[in-house]
């Protein structure tokens, strides 16, 4: 069996993409944990929309989460479309994550002990240069590379626990 050059390149690209995805997943987890400690997270679709409306310059990153249960939720999909458009207009990187339960675990619970609505998570950064995180830099690079491959809202898988 011989492999054509195109097949070898395709295999290399698949491995490279897999590595990029794994690194991006780790970076996202690190970013969310770090931002939570700093109180730089806004969790929830409506809460995020309020922050974006009032102070878009302090939004550093956006995570949209869904799973099969919510794929047919038209209202949620409309909110996602509007949030994505807002992010694109304001040069905010945005990614999707398909494991909403894992995201909810990372961002914690509300005052009543219930899991927060993790469908939309914003990482905020009060002040232009007050908070820099290496994981955020990795995610910005991942999003930039994804856009160069015409993947405008890349999907990231979080590492297994």
Automatic annotation (TrEMBL):
Residues 27-110 form the Ribosomal protein eL8/eL30/eS12/Gadd45 domain. It comes from Umbra pygmaea. Coiled coil: none annotated. Undergoes concentration-dependent homodimerization, which is required for growth inhibititory activity and enhances interaction with PCNA. Interacts with GADD45GIP1. Interacts with PCNA. GO terms for biological process: apoptotic process; cell differentiation; positive regulation of MAPK cascade. The keyword Chaperone does not apply. Keywords: Apoptosis, Developmental protein, Differentiation. This is Growth arrest and DNA damage-inducible protein GADD45 gamma. One of its GO terms (cellular component) is nucleus. Belongs to the GADD45 family. Gene3D superfamilies: 3.30.1330.30. Involved in the regulation of growth and apoptosis. Mediates activation of stress-responsive MTK1/MEKK4 MAPKKK. It comes from the Eukaryota.
């Amino acid at each position: 069996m011989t492999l054509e050059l195109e097949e070898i390149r395709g295999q290399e690209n698949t491995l490279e993409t897999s590595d990029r995805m794994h690194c991006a997943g780790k970076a996202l987890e690190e970013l969310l944990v770090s931002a939570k400690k700093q109180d730089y997270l806004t969790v929830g679709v409506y809460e995020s929309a309020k922050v974006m409306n009032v102070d878009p310059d302090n939004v550093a990153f956006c995570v949209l989460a869904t799973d099969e249960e919510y794929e047919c939720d038209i209202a949620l999909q409309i909110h996602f479309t509007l949030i994505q458009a807002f992010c694109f207009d304001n040069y905010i990187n945005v990614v999707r994550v398909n494991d909403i339960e894992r995201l909810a675990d990372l961002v914690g619970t509300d005052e009543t002990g219930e899991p927060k609505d993790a469908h939309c998570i914003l990482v905020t950064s009060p002040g232009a240069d007050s908070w820099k995180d290496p994981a955020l830099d990795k995610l910005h690079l991942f999003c930039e590379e994804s856009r160069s491959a015409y993947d405008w809202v890349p999907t990231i898988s979080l590492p297994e626990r």
